[in-house]
User: Fold this.
Amino acid sequence: MPMNTFSLPLIGVHPAAAGAVDAVRRLQEAGYIAYWAGGCVRDLIIGRHAKDFDIATNAVPDKVVELFPDAVAVGKCFGVVRVPVDGNWYEIATFRQDEAYLDGRRPSAVTFSDPETDAQRRDFTVNALFYDPLRGQVIDYVSGREDIERRVIRAVGNPRERFREDHLRLLRAVRFASTLDFSLDPDTAAAIREWAPKVSVVSAERIREELSRLWVEAHRAGDALILLRELGLLQVVLPEVAAMHGVEQPPQYHPEGDVFQHTVVMLNGLDTEDYRLAWAVLLHDVGKPPTAQFKDGRWRFECHAAVGAEATRAILQRLRFSTDDTDEITHMVSNHMRFIDVKSMRRATLRRIVGSPTFHSEMELHRLDCASSHGDLENYHYLGDFHRQMASEPVLPPPWITGREIMALGIPEGREVGAWRKKAYDAQLEGTHPDREALLDWLQKEIVGTVQPGG
Assistant:
């Protein structure tokens, strides 16, 4: 395809762009071709702030290192070197041609090439553009600018070849379409449907990162979930979520539709950078399909939160989430139904909820859950009011009574000490005793009353 060029002034871009300009200048002054490449060019054309500025050049890695003495060769066999300029780090990659992909992930080898050849081996046309910041000129070998104007994600060249090379591109296509609010080119979409089963061989870590970015970066994460299902990808990477589709709910509580549609509406209302909250929203009702039963004239999902928590833990472990991530997300799924009872809860229980490190995320999960179904936010406001009432004091203050003191009152070392500590702390949180001495006196009487004579 012939090269197209057009002018684009470098106006109002990220401060990190200055170092990327200097890096290109140093390479060009040494006699090499050097451009910005990939996503930063796409974002510059669209008018979005680029996060990263990658540079492509015909200088081989050893020459790049000569020009940038503090450079670090992070992927020398693939022609990639990281260089520091003006306090920022940039990746400089040599134009290359990829040899055969044997594992659906990376090429078996690369040979260094020229800009046009390099553009042809990239994933999508919108990511295959180059920009010369010194001349303010975009270099386009793949009609990427036209696709940006059409708001279309289209694979470079033969889409089946692109997805055969790297199966993660199947998910990346959905992410780019969803985060840029673009549509998928019909041929590209057809190739994704054809190759969808192959996403199963992508490493769990790569799938996890791609999906986590999708949920928090998409304009409407619920629409992204629908697209994953329509393309056959959801059924492979998250079959438990795909199983929500068609699971009916009682219309008096869920006028929005089935469990899948409810989740879509919640995700579309999500506005967060917290991937843990996003995964909790996605999985909060994952326990409904296996617990669904039509009983007493309507659909019911008994113990679905507990069942969903087990499924959530299994899913997150399968995707190689960290233990902290797994515990926090599973906790939110497990407890998402307890907000129904906040008005009848003891003060100590409310303080434990409000004092939890996940409280704000749990509140948002509950708000979205209600707003995306029956619309009743009374419990949400009730708990919010309680939280504000506690603003002037520690919600979960240090316990007044220690385990050692409980043992001194006659309780032998063991699990019973922990039970008494909880009872004492609950009483402290209830505020029924004015100070530590009064609480300790009450506790002693309670313990004495439970000790059997001669025990």
Observations:
- Residues 252 and 289 are 19 Å apart (CA to CA).
- The chain has a mean pLDDT of 91.
- Residues 415-430 form the longest helix (16 residues).
